[in-house]
Amino acid sequence: MNKIISFFLLILSFNSFSQYGNEWIDYSQKYYTLKIVEDGFYKIDYTTLVNAGVPISSINTSNLQVFGFEKEQPILVEDGGDTSFDFGDYILFYAQGNTTWLDSLIYDAPEDVSNKYYPHYNDTITYFLTWNNSVSNKRISVEQDVSFGSYSANNYIFKKSIKEFHNYYAQGRNIEAVSLSDYTKGEGWVSNPINALDSYNRIDANMPTSFAYTGTGTPNVEGIAVSLGVSNASVGVGSDNHHFQLQYGTANTILHDISYSAYDLKKISFTFPASGIGSTTTRIRHQLINDLGVAADHQSVAFVELTYAHLPNLEGSDYIEFIHENHTSTTKSLYNFTNFGGTTPYVFSFGDGLKKLPMINTSGVYQVLVPNNLLGQTQKLIVLDENAIKNVASISPVNNTGSFTNFSTTNFNDAYLILTHKSLSSSVSEYKQYRESFEGGNYNVISANVDELYLQFGGGVPKHVLGLSRFQLYAYEKALVEKPNHVFIIGKGVREANESYLQQTNGTRQSVFAYNYCLVPSYGFPASDILMTHHLLNNDYIPLVPIGRLAARNNSEVSIYLDKVKAYELEQVQSDPYTLQSKYWQKDILHFGGGSTASEQAIFKNYLLQFENVLEDSKFAGHVTSFHKSVSDPIDPVTLFSVTDKINEGVSLMTFFGHAYAGGFDQNVDDPES
User: Fold this and answer.
1) pLDDT range class, residue 303, cuts 50, 70, 90
2) Residue 247: CB partners within 8 Å, gap ≥ 6?
3) What's the pLDDT score for residue 636?
4) Selection from 532, 510, 506 nearest residue 521 by Cα
5) What is the CA radius of gyration of the chain?
6) Alpha helices, H only, 573-666
């Protein structure tokens, strides 16, 4: 019998937050989910509700609600005014695909997110349809004013043009491509790096700027550009090792000249005259400058955005977004739009509440009055055709019943938390039963399906690690007597990011295969489960609750592990004779040191020697046997037999300190099945 229990070391940070993310849920209500990827207006009709099993005939339409981003969203219920939902009636609402709103909580500071237009874990978010007994739920207000003659038309309206890059994942601060696992400034999705020393040493963002207004009194173009360093060469001239100029237009007019060092992020606000706008596109260039005498100067761009005055021209589109600047001298602003690409226009303004505005077509001129925001802020304005409204084909009840698990009634005291995927439910149930048994420790085991945790605690974003983090915080703070003692993740995890340095396979964000292969996500790059709760309660580098993972891909692998656990723990029966001969193996520890180069092997060996000193001290009084790699092969045959013999005799802990890849470890001693 092989008496082994193996655990592996993980790496390293987190941002604190007060909310759990489930405060918006009323557990007495039923909830139905729909996935949103693209921004726009959506329609849920009678047939969709009936097919989903919603008891719509018994629901007053005033009671209907839609939630997204952990908030109630305003809706417009077209019911003919009878508060009854019948065939032909529908619910209309605005929804957005996922943004970096959750990602900002896992950085040290929200402004450290490099690319705010490309979220880390997923571009999809879940919205929820529900109903209550209230008649004062959030609604889209409908304006009626068409007194266009009382106002003078605006000459222009503002439009935002965006260019973002996500070809490359920048690690942020790193040493020889090894970075911290927490999300830090200078990390994230950006353009492919460009080296200032190369002949092609610029990054261009060609911004769409059609139908720009350039008349008298036109305000300046305003913009933001975010870039970062992805190398840290030895400093040459001065103290910086990156240099670039931000330029605009065909003449490459300089906006800013920036020098900086290391893996810093540079967010630059800029302006230039409206006369600099191109007729169809306007180039914003990051021109790298090779004048610092460094061996390399690699830089990337996250995004560029321009906000410019735009003619009241709808560009022949059936969906277009503008920015309306409020005018304090009048309650409403008139726009005479032309060049609409549809037949039945809808107009919505996002100011102090979401409003539907009437638009009148007079010989191809589409007039609309926009109420000025009472707070004096700018507001988004969307003009779209009726055919551009997206139909929601299907919705699904939460947990197949419509009801969330009400964890507020759960006893989390001294809990053993299991976070797992539904595909492993049968084997995890067996593991749970064992842990609840006398032989398994009589634990208070609470098993949670990660798919529901994303919905309750993760903002509805599939496979976002914050859903797991917030649930652990919830369990920890709801345990008022004894805190949870274990978090055991059961399920294979795959990193979110691409491993850009060695050009390895993509992570879950950009690979469908990796996304489906990942059953339970981890945190950061390189991935670290410890960081799921890092800094949640100012707990520094210590996890809130001790955490581990079984990276199982299927029920069979979980069952194999459970059999090994039972065999191991059978040897721990306290009623057995406790003799030195029978129990000495529990003090035996194996250390395996890897490394791909001689210097790495020496570094890893030194770390393991430090661990050895701790383990052999009086607090544990262990006995460590070490196997340090000195050649390129994983392990030589003679040593392999020594390792196998030692394992068969029994060891309590095996520590592998080295590299790993999909096919094995830096130090391979045997197949896991053996």
Assistant:
1) very high
2) 253, 254, 255, 284, 285, 286, 287
3) 55
4) 532
5) 30
6) 580-583, 598-615, 637-649
Pairing between β-strand 141-142 and β-strand 353-357 as defined by DSSP bridges: parallel
The string of pLDDT tens digits covering residues 37-58 is 999 999 999 999 999 999 999 9
Model's pTM, two decimal places? 0.88
Domain positions in the chain: 1-15+407-576, 31-138, 148-154+312-391, 157-310, 579-674
Bigger pLDDT: 175 vs 99: 99
The answer to whether 277 touches 308, Cβ cutoff 8 Å, is yes
Token pair 């990054």 in the structure block, residue: 203
Between CA 240 and CA 237 the distance in angstroms is: 7
Q: 439 — phi, psi (to 5°)?
A: -65, -30
| Mean local confidence (pLDDT), 454-467 | 97
For the segment 419-444, what is each residue's pLDDT rounded down to a tens digit?
999 999 999 999 999 999 999 999 99
Closest CA to 162 of 283, 279, 56, 304: 304
Work out the pLDDT band at 660, boundaries 50, 70, 90.
confident
Which residue in 134, 142, 53, 50 sits closest to 89, CA to CA?
Answer: 50
| pLDDT digits 0-9 by tens, 102-150 | 999 999 889 999 999 999 999 999 999 999 999 999 999 999 999 999 9
DSSP of 316-377, one letter per residue?
T-SEEEEEEPP-TTSSEEEEEEB--SSSSEEEEEEESEEEEE-EEEETTEEEEEEEPPTT--
Report d(CA 674, CA 664) in Å as an integer.
Answer: 14
Q: Pairing relation of β-strands 90-95 and 75-78?
A: antiparallel
Contact assessment for residue 171 and residue 525, using Cβ atoms and an 8 Å cutoff? yes
Options 2.60.40, 2.60.120, 3.30.70, 3.40.30; which CATH number does 157-310 get? 2.60.120
Distance CA(394)–CA(374), nearest Å, equals 38
> Beta strand 415-420 with 486-490: parallel, antiparallel or unpaired?
parallel
In the numeric block, the tokens 């993760």 are attached to 458
Characterize 50-71 residue by residue with b for buried, 16 or more Cβ atoms within 10 angstroms of its Cβ, and e for exposed: eebebebeebebbbbbbbbbbe
8 A C-beta contact, residue 203 and residue 285:
yes
Cβ–Cβ contacts within 10 Å for residue 582, how many? 12
Residue found by looking up tokens 């070490």 in the block? 626
